[in-house]
Amino acid sequence: MSESELVQELSADGKLRLIMNRPEVHNAFDDRQVANLTDALLAAAENPGVRLVVIEGRGKNFCAGGDINYMRRMGENTFQENVEDARRLATLMKVLNDLPKPTIARVQGAAMGGGVGLVCCCDIAVGEPNTFLALSEIKIGMVPATIAPYVVKTIGPKPARRLFMTGEKVSASRAEALGMLSEVVADGSLDSRIAEISTTLLANAPSGLAKAKQIIERVSRGGIDEKMIEDTVRFIAEIRDSTEGREGLSAFLEKRKPNWSHH
Fold first, then answer.
1. 137-141 long-range CB contacts below 8 Å, 24 or more apart?
2. CA distance 139 to 112
3. Which CATH code fits 206-262?
4. Average pLDDT, whole number, for the chain?
5. For residues 146 and 86, is the Cβ–Cβ distance under 8 A?
6. CA-based angle 87:81:25, to the nearest 5?
């Protein structure tokens, strides 16, 4: 697989587009594409020139999950080979979920199997009326195990039970109601809406965006106890004491736009 099957486009303002470029197989991925995506995301996390990431699929569909030849090889693998293969996919999902920069999924057409995992791991997912999602692994005797933590966190256990066991298609409107999609826009409006969201995100504090993701992850674990409360107290105190926090507050009080570039 050539690198051209994952196209990377970085704009001057810091928006990195990762475009799965296998439209002939509906952007289904195999082990090499999983590695391409993982490497690209790890590089984006370390690159200060990248402010946000948009994940896309070229053609009519976002991502059809596992490539047929990839799945054929899985059936021939030893147990240990399947463990190692599944770990690579699990790593991709965790890297995407934990990326310290905003992530947006541009979801047109079908998102199936692992493609649903990509959608659920992104901070924001925008679809169209013809978008649909499906956790169809059960239809071939599998279950969506490595993406399960992110799907269940997104939609909750009860809806997950139904979708994991039926493999049924989820319409765009239902996916939005479940929280898989952040919003559904009119046909032809996908790119303009994502551009609007990107502009909003890029106007905000770069480190603050990463901190926002961190605090959400922290408070979503366990009950609200004294330890969690103290953690939030120290968290905001550290932000207030940071150069970026001070710049944001000064800009607000001085009624000007903050200058994040030097902070």
1. 137/65, 137/113, 137/164, 137/167, 138/164, 138/165, 138/166, 138/167, 139/167, 140/71
2. 12
3. 1.10.12.10
4. 94
5. yes
6. 75
pLDDT in tens, 98-112: 999 999 999 999 999
Please give the class, per CATH, of domain 3-202: alpha beta
Q: Tell me the average pLDDT across 46-52.
A: 97
- Name residues whose C-beta falls within 8 Å of residue 15's C-beta, 6 or more positions apart in sequence: 51, 52, 53, 54, 198, 202
Number of helices (H) and strands (E) in the chain: give both, helices first.
11, 9
Which residue ranges make up each domain of the chain? 3-202, 206-262
Highest mean pLDDT (candidates 136-145, 151-160, 241-250)? 151-160
The Cα–Cα gap between 237 and 241 comes to 6
- The C-alpha atoms of residue 170 and residue 87 are separated, in whole angstroms, by 27
Please say if the pLDDT value at position 262 is more than 60.
no
- Tracing tokens 């996919």 back to the chain, one arrives at 89
Task: Please state the rounded mean pLDDT for residues 171-197.
Answer: 98
